[in-house]
From TrEMBL:
Keyword Cytoplasm applies: yes
Keywords: ATP-binding, Cytoplasm, Kinase, Nucleotide-binding, Transferase
Organism: Pseudoalteromonas tunicata D2
The protein's name in its UniProt record: Guanylate kinase
Binding site for ATP: 13-20
PROSITE patterns, alphabetized: GUANYLATE_KINASE_1, GUANYLATE_KINASE_2
GO cellular-component term (any): cytosol
Predominant place of localization: cytoplasm
């Protein structure tokens, strides 16, 4: 177990900006980073597994969890409920793992209020036409759903200025290394380093 507490990151993006692929690629490189598995009331897409991509629950179950105060944050997004359980993040952070929350701007606001040291990252597509074609190429949703997502993508993007960092996901490898730079540099913050290297510092400062 690391002696340093893990850092908490939020990644937000409009649907189709490539956020999930970036997180997946980053986690492949780093065993000490995890993405939080949210609860949602939306239906699983083909290939999505319960407890891996989301905890898929009914509206009744979701409301029960709200009443039990189990959520760190939750919001209604695209007609469905989404939420991060407290359990999903606390154990990991305590174990020194960096945790990513793939959540929307409403959730980001709640987490910022609760955890001011959270680092927030916003990912945008390189152009509107590229975003459109990415949403179409996914081929898992109806045209109606895609059109609704396109409209909501703009609503999500209008919140870009509430975030600490911004990445333009044009070239995937460039975006990935930019994301990695943000995450790794957080560990080098003096306050984080002082915790990990307290013995060294005590020694260096001793007369
Ligand atoms: N507030 C909040 N938003 C979430 C949570 N989980 C996912 N979301 C957001 O809900 C939106 C829809 O996610 P999803 O159904 O996976 O569709 P996607 O747009 O293809 O990723 C995205 O903006 C996610 O970041 C959560 O636990 N809390
Ligand atoms: Mg998603």
């Amino acid at each position: 177990m690391s002696s340093q507490r893990g850092n908490l990151f939020i990644l937000s993006a409009p649907s189709g900006a490539g956020k999930s692929s970036l997180i997946t690629a980053l986690l492949k490189r780093h065993a000490d980073m995890k993405v939080s598995v949210s609860h949602t009331t939306r239906q699983p897409r083909p290939g999505e597994e319960n407890a891996v991509h989301y905890h898929f629950v009914s509206v009744d179950e979701f409301k029960r969890l709200i009443d039990k105060n189990d959520f760190f944050e939750w919001a209604q997004v695209f007609e469905n409920y989404y939420g991060t359980s407290k359990q999903a993040i606390e154990q990991q952070l305590a174990a020194g793992i960096d945790v990513f929350l793939d959540i929307d701007w409403q959730g980001a606001r709640q987490v910022r209020d609760l955890t001011p040291d959270v680092q927030t990252i916003f990912i945008v597509p390189p152009s509107k036409s590229e975003l459109e074609s990415r949403l179409n190429n996914r081929g898992q949703d109806s045209a109606e759903v895609i059109a609704a997502r396109m409209a909501k993508a703009q609503a999500e993007m209008s919140h870009y200025d509430e975030y600490d960092y911004m990445i333009i996901n044009d070239d995937f490898d460039t975006a990935l290394s930019q994301l990695e730079t943000i995450v790794l540099s957080q560990r080098l913050k003096q306050t984080n380093q002082a915790l990990v290297h307290h013995t060294l510092l005590a020694n260096l400062l001793q007369d």
